[in-house]
From TrEMBL:
Organism: Rhizobium lusitanum
A matching Pfam family: DUF2062
TM annotation in the entry: 36-56, 62-82, 94-111, 144-167
Residue ranges constituting the DUF2062 domain according to the UniProt record: 27-175
Keywords: Membrane, Transmembrane, Transmembrane helix
Protein name (Swiss-Prot/TrEMBL): DUF2062 domain-containing protein
């Protein structure tokens, strides 16, 4: 192979590289941002899609986030790829525990419940195994769903505004650079033809 390492990485080095990249996470975030602003869509479409992905990440329905984000993005005229990127940005194994705890607490505040003790508690693995979602709805899903509404609205509006202006600025600057290059080429061609 052309770009193979002379000394292959050991298993522990590969594992460390996956958990903490050598160049850090900043490079990944920069690539992610560039991928978002370079989407071939209008600033509104990219921002609406990205915001849809962020908003959906606040819901407790972890298995269907991508599907929900795609449907919402389609309904509001957002970019489907941007909605998937929004899901990946906000909903990942690092952020989910914080999202769940935050929505749980907000949901209990809104519903005026005591989040400290539920009596005997519930056996979630047993309920999931039985497929009894009705018993999970009231003590778990309902507070998380209701608690996710305020942060979803706030983060959706903020992310939409930031993404819209970021994409618009990037596309305007890119258009100006391309126009300047075209003018330079035209001037060179005119100078060459006049000689």
């Amino acid at each position: 192979m052309l770009f193979r390492r002379r000394k292959p990485l050991t298993f522990s080095e590969k594992l460390r590289e996956h958990l903490w990249p050598r160049k850090g996470f900043v490079r990944s975030f920069q690539y992610f941002g560039k991928r978002l602003v370079r989407l071939a869509a209008s600033p509104h479409s990219v921002a609406a899609g990205f915001a849809a992905g962020i908003v959906v990440s606040w819901t407790p329905f972890i298995g269907v986030h991508f599907v929900m984000a795609i449907i919402i993005a389609y309904l509001i005229g957002g970019n489907v790829i941007a909605s998937a990127l929004g899901c990946l940005a906000a909903g990942n194994p690092i952020t989910y525990p914080f999202i769940w705890a935050f929505t749980w607490e907000i949901g209990h505040l809104i519903l005026a419940r005591d989040s400290g003790g539920q009596g005997g508690g519930i056996d979630l693995p047993a309920l999931w195994h039985k497929g009894d979602l009705l018993q999970i709805w009231d003590p778990v899903l309902k507070p998380m769903l209701i608690g996710g509404i305020p942060p979803a609205i706030v983060s959706g509006v903020i992310v939409y505004a930031l993404t819209y202006y970021g994409v618009k600025t990037f596309k305007t600057r890119r258009k100006e650079r391309l126009m300047e290059r075209a003018r330079e080429r035209l001037a060179l061609a005119e100078n060459a033809s006049s000689v």
